[in-house]
Batch of 2 targets.
Target 1
Amino acid sequence: MRRRLLMALAVLPAVAQAGVEDGATGCASAPLVAYADLPATAALPDPFLSRSGAALKRKSDWPCRRREVSQQLQAYELGEKPAPVPGSVSATLDGTALTVTVKDAGRSVSFVANVQLPSSGTPPYPALIGIGRSSLNNAELLQRGVAIINFPNDDIAQQRNGQSRNLGKFFELYPQREGAGALVAWAWGVSRLIDAIELGALPNVDAGRLGVTGCSRNGKGALMAGALDERVALTIVQESGSGGAAAWRVSDAQKAAGQNVQTLGQIVQENVWFRSSFGQFGAGAAKLPYDHHQVLGLVAPRSLLVIENTSMEWLGNQSAWTAALAGREVWTALGATDRMGISQVGGHNHCLLPASQAVEVNAFVDRFLKGTAGVATDVVHTDGSFPVERSRWMPWKTPALD
Ligand code: MCU
């Protein structure tokens, strides 16, 4: 009997275990608060207090806390990410063009992602998904054994200007979701691309070793894609600025100090990256029950590298430094500090990766996508002069969770 069972198991096809976008289960959270009832909080909110006010005690408390912040981010800022629909994704590969088709409720859309395979290594390769494209050291990454996939984000949700609202394939599939921001539409699309890879649409790519990256506006997208899908092993957010690595509150403070910084109030006018109702926070970010240090924290305990450019005041250089340091405390609480890196280097054009940061990208890619042992990823530095006012912005304590 026992022998027969073992034989039956052995002939099962070797299907890789599919991951899940959000692995939290059995969470009991205090309800979301309506905008009118949100209290103003000057400091960056405490990442370690759940919505009920209870302090986190164990590492195992993190998935439900993470879910709470993800819900807040979607409810107030991005728009809700549609849940995966089982059986809705199919894909075909023609040369380097991967066509992904998603069907839901009688509607169907297709998008094309372009795939470049590396010139070294052994398949299945790890892969980096570029929002639009990757602005990293791509030639080097391909030589080092990493595939690069271009995700056509503008096709999923347009971002030309403030008139781009509700345009793109996401809104063709989900017309009832108008008002959602482009960032969440892109994050949804990246998840469907990952579904297709998990289905085996790219036989030479390893669905268990995927990263996302993007620069500037597309860096904001990379952050949201990594934050909202736990199947993403490594997130590299490049010069994302306000709406990405920067904290809305600290950007408001930079602006109040006379600097030319993009704030929440400005960004909701410029483009459609955020849900239309996000404009209600435009007078100031203090009513948000979270800030972007916690959006960075949604990636924890997976790996995150934040690359910023100190020369660009508009991006909220001081704000991104402060928020990234605050966000890194989440990894510290989870005992995974060296999975989160912060690198801020100026003196170069926007989205042109300096050689010193390419070294850091390679280290994160080697350790977290290629799985190379013994690679140091302790990266925390800025060439800016940004004294961090911890008592002002982080008046909370980082717990050592059991
Ligand atoms: C840093 O990302 C944006 C920024 O938020 C915008 O204000 C500016 O117009 O464009 C940046 C960008 O995407 O540059 C390519």
Target 2
Amino acid sequence: KTCILIGAPVDSGKRRKGCLMGPDAYRTAGLAEALTDLGHGLIDRGNLAPAQVEVPAPSNPAVHELARTVGWTKTLMAAATEAMGEGFPIFLGGDHSLSLGSVAGVAAHAKAVGRPLFVLWLDAHTDYHTPDTTDSGNLHGTPLGYVTGREGFSAFPPLPAIVPGENICLMGIRSVDRAENEALQGSGMTVHDMRDIDENGIARPLAAFLERVRAANGLLHVSLDVDFLDPSVAPAVGTTVPGGATVREAHLVMEHLHDSGLVCSLDLVELNPFLDERGRTAKLMVDLAASLMGRRVFDRPTRSF
Ligand code: ARG
Ligand code: MN
Ligand code: MN
């Protein structure tokens, strides 16, 4: 594959600063080398900057940095659609508000080639707010609301293609706000919270979702939030929630995603290098991306479930 690194130093999706250093932390941790070692081609587009836009005042006064996040969405949507025509985009975040643009842009590409887009959301949070329902006002909590076509995003670019809730699977969930909980009921999305993963493991729910993607001849976008992982192994994130995925669970997900051959694009989000310990979180994220792109401990025959 030709991997296209798209630096998205988005820091407007929440109040705590630091995610703007994420793209360079991934580069420092050896992401490009890991991918070329696996035999992939590599294009690094450098770090993008948000479009300058003007927006009306948000109806919810809590909303933080609306114009900047709208500008990023515009820029990243275009970058995503373009990169999909050339290779396998990897969005180096930046906070999770970058996914308003990356997912919408990938969805536009999927529509253009006539295939349904599926999304795997690996996160402690459901990120299903709208600018009207968020209490924190942090727009990194809204990307799934936007891409599924919820109301309240009139300041944002019109969605080129809605991702149906039925095509979205969330894993690792352990923090859901009340307003999200209510909206999730009718959303059609599949939510595997940590209790579910404790009871059933992570491989089987994933296999069931991948089977659906395959049956629909779909494209699969993966959005990996650092806080999917347990904070004891991935401390470099502003929104830690105890009880997350282990290193092995996360690698297993990535290995199965690789073996499926279905993944077309990836977000690496919410890394805040200011909070890291000697780069360990950045390195773990690079290792997980490498597993997704084909790194394996030894060559054994591919197993299917
Ligand atoms: N639900 C909370 C909020 O809206 C937390 C969102 C965290 N999102 C994230 N991408 N880390 O503020
Ligand atoms: Mn998130
Ligand atoms: Mn999160």
